[in-house]
């Protein structure tokens, strides 16, 4: 099938009419974002990727310096490609597009330094090399004869040299059998690029067959509940590339190869609408961001495939600049797969879900007073992008600072992925709402896991009870049961009960709440956590704890320093081997 036919229709049967999109007011916000970014970039020269920048990661562990320039170049590609498609009569867009394509073709490698790990340039394929090849292939397919023939031929030759030849002849690659986003992004990008520009049918079929095999490995990383343990940002990313490849493959085979038929794929698709607590604020366990906007194109496409899929609220739409990596594939589909006429609510539909494989409890409560969200997790301390966080929980309301927070993703450095990972606040147990036993934090590793004793949801309340003693080896604990009782009144309230039993003798205990609200101690047994719109009162038994507040700073994913508070309730000395701590969060 010619590549042009793969884009002949949208997911709903209509042709992609770029002129109509360009003229439609439904796309005005998207177009304005593109036009503004185009004006910004047009006034600047193409930044250079120097050897000095490339060597910084090896020398210092810093990724941001090189990657900032790398992604700025990819932003030029994505911006001017989309502007050229929307407004082909403007010659400057074509000129800027041709210039950045030529510059990218001259790059020594399309891989990031952090991913090379001693590989030769001619063999290495990482996430971003695969994405770049896919992007160039799509640009070539979509622009058709608009690009100079010499440049178009050079694009295809470089994709062949950097992706197709190594994939077929120099593997296998570690990601070919991975069960996380690398598998979907790398294999999906190469398979999609092959469908678009590889002229040899046998080579095209071979690459697609390899890609489908890797996609099966990717799906194996999900439980039957469909939860993405890496959060909605990685759902957008990894599952997005699964969908992009699956869509092109289904079109290329006239539906004979349909990767959407697997029931597990549907459950993964539905994870998005289950994981949000309010607006763009998800249950951001692991290396998920506290705010994750939604790719409306991807969501609307999946809603056309699966009738149970909810069209997200327009308010949570991912803006063009939200993706700091400026990936072309999602940016394109946020335009061509968007359904302006789709029915949407002002916020997500309320509900509660227990995801049994992930051991996540998630609840979204909508009331006259606002939208309230609660989430808690069991699981293990050996998960993708792992944090030591078994038994951790999140509590928030509307757009207020989180009353019980997950800090999310820290800055990606060599150390963050090295032996010192759990010294970082984002990943370590000390940066989560978890108790400390005799000065000990939770241990990392697969043996540090929860046992779910109860998980129930209803219209009026949710209950979640975990056994956590295995997370504190050598602590002397015989049992630690953590119980959550979420009452969906208006406004709701959360009761947390930790029941400790020591095998031989009592040991010191400190309850910890990680919050973005500055705690204010009202009295013994009452602490206020004031948000912008709401206030939560934390109540506990007077005379049992000594309260202390620690203000801390951490580097977020973008290297920006942020503030949070560790509220510590230090249990007073006792002799009994049994101890129960009851904390109640009551919204005012």
Please summarize what this structure is.
The protein is α+β, with helices and mostly antiparallel strands and 588 residues long.
Can you describe this structure?
This protein has helices spanning about 20-25, 30-40, 50-60, 65-85, 90-105, 115, 125-145, 150-170, 180-195, 200-220, 230-250, 265-275, 295-305, 330-335; strands spanning about 275-280, 280, 350-355, 360-365, 370-375, 380, 395, 435, 445-450, 450-455, 460-465, 475-485, 495-500, 510-515, 520-525, 525-530, 535-540, 545-555, 560-570, 580-585. The chain is of the alpha+beta class and about 600 residues long. It has 2 domains: about 5-335, Glycosyltransferase (Alpha/alpha barrel); about 350-585, Beta-galactosidase, Chain A, domain 5, CATH 2.70.98. It has an 8-stranded antiparallel sheet, with no helix packed on it. The radius of gyration is 25 Å and the shape is globular. The model is unreliable at about 10-15 (pLDDT under 50).
From the structure above, extract its key features.
588 residues; alpha+beta; Glycosyltransferase; 8-stranded antiparallel β-sheet; 4-stranded antiparallel β-sheet; Chondroitin_lyas
- The proportion of residues in beta strands is 15-25%
The helix tally amounts to 14
Supply the CATH class of the largest domain.
Mainly Alpha
Give the overall pLDDT as a whole number.
Answer: 95
Major sheet characteristics: 8 strands, antiparallel
CATH architectural category of the largest domain = Alpha/alpha barrel
Under CATH, the homologous superfamily of the largest domain reads: Chondroitin AC/alginate lyase
Strands, count:
20
Tell me the count of domains.
2
What sort of overall outline do the alpha carbons produce when their principal axes are compared?
A: globular
pLDDT below 50 for ≥5 consecutive residues: which ranges?
8-14
Strand order across the biggest sheet? 10-11-12-13-20-17-16-15
Radius of gyration from CA coordinates: 25 Å
CATH topology descriptor of the largest domain: Glycosyltransferase
Structural class: alpha+beta
Distance between the termini: 62 Å
Estimated helix fraction: 25-40%
């Amino acid at each position: 099938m010619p590549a042009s036919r793969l884009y002949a229709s949208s997911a709903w049967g209509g042709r992609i009419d770029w002129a109509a999109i360009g003229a439609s007011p439904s796309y005005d916000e998207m177009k304005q974002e593109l036009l503004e970014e185009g004006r910004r970039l047009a006034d600047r020269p193409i930044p250079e990727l120097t050897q000095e920048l490339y060597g910084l990661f090896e020398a210092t562990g810093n990724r941001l310096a090189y990657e900032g320039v790398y992604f700025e170049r990819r932003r030029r590609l994505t911006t001017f490609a989309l502007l050229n498609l929307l407004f082909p009569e403007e010659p400057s867009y074509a000129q800027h597009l041709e210039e950045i394509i030529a510059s990218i073709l001259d790059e020594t490698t399309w891989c990031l330094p952090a991913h090379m790990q001693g590989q030769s340039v001619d063999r290495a394929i990482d996430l971003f090399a695969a994405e770049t090849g896919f992007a160039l292939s799509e640009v070539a397919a979509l622009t058709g004869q608009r690009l100079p023939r010499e440049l178009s031929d050079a694009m295809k030759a470089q994709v062949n040299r950097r992706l197709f030849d190594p994939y077929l002849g120099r593997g296998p690659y570690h990601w070919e059998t991975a069960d996380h986003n690398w598998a979907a992004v790398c294999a999906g990008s190469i398979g999609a690029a092959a469908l678009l520009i590889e002229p040899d049918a046998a080579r095209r079929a071979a690459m697609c067959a390899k890609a489908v095999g890797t996609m099966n490995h990717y799906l194996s990383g999900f439980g039957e509940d469909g939860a993405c343990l890496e959060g909605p940002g990685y759902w957008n990313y990894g599952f997005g590339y699964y969908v992009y490849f699956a869509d092109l493959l289904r079109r290329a085979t006239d539906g004979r190869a349909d990767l959407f038929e697997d029931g597990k794929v549907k459950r993964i698709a539905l994870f998005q609408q289950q994981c949000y607590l309010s607006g763009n604020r998800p249950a951001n366990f692991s290396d998920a961001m506290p705010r994750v906007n939604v790719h409306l194109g991807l969501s609307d496409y999946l809603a056309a495939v699966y009738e149970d899929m909810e069209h997200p609220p327009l308010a949570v739409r991912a803006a063009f600049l939200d993706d700091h990596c400026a990936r072309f594939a999602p940016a394109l589909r946020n335009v061509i797969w968007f359904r302006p006429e789709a029915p949407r609510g002002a916020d997500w539909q309320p509900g509660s879900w227990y995801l049994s494989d992930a051991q996540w409890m998630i609840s979204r409560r909508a009331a006259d007073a606002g939208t309230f969200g609660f989430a808690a997790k069991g699981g293990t301390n050996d998960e993708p992008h792992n944090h030591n966080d078994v038994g951790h929980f999140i509590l928030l309301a509307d757009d207020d600072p989180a009353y019980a927070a997950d800090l999310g993703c820290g800055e990606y450095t060599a150390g963050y992925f090295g032996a010192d990972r759990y010294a970082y606040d984002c990943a370590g147990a000390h940066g989560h709402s978890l108790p400390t036993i005799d000065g000990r934090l939770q241990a990392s590793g697969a043996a540090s896991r929860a046992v779910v004793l109860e998980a129930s949801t209803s219209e009026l309340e949710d209950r979640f009870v975990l056994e956590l003693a295995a997370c504190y080896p050598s602590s002397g604990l015989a049992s630690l049961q953590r119980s959550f009782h979420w009452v969906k009144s208006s406004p709701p309230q959360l009761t947390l009960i930790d029941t400790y039993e020591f095998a031989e003798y009592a040991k010191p205990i400190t309850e910890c709440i990680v919050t973005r609200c500055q705690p204010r101690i009202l009295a013994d047994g009452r602490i206020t956590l004031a948000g912008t719109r709401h206030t939560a009162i934390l109540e506990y038994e007077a005379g049992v704890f000594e309260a202390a507040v620690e203000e801390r700073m951490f580097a977020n994913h973008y290297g920006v320093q942020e503030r949070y508070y560790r509220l510590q309730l230090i249990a007073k000395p006792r002799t009994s081997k049994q101890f129960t701590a009851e904390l109640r969060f009551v919204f005012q």
